[in-house]
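User: For my dataset I need records formatted as: sequence, then structure tokens, nothing else. Please produce one.
Assistant:
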Amino acid sequence: MTNPIRPTDEDARALAQALMTEARFAALATLDTEGCPLVTRIAFGLCPADQPISLMSSLAQHSQNLRINPACSLLVGEPGPKGDPLTHPRLSLVGTARPVDNQSPEHAELATHYLRSHPKSKLYIGFGDFSFVRFSVRLGNLNGGFGKAFNLTPDDLAPS
């Protein structure tokens, strides 16, 4: 059997970067205290350095899971309006999450940037239980459609 993973090329890098840039939400996978997976939908954006971030409530189960175990995975990319959903590109990002203190200068900088792409977040961005989470990506798996699988490094995911 031949390896289904193709060599990473500029088209794969560009598609992965586009999926992250266009995404406004993602599926987040975390592990609970017993090691059971939990997948939830979260808001998704990129910080000024083009790393994934999200604005989360500390009351959410996924936030509580990340405090105990910061290992996580994100899935970005949505099926188009027509055709088989499995033929549309999607990107899995594997890494760790780091909370940003909502009283820190970093939080204020992220808030200014984030509100440009998520203006409705203005309703709750100042709530005491909401803060940003920054994701450090260790690897990416791009499925660009049928027969188009790629493994990506953090360098592959950085803008050119």
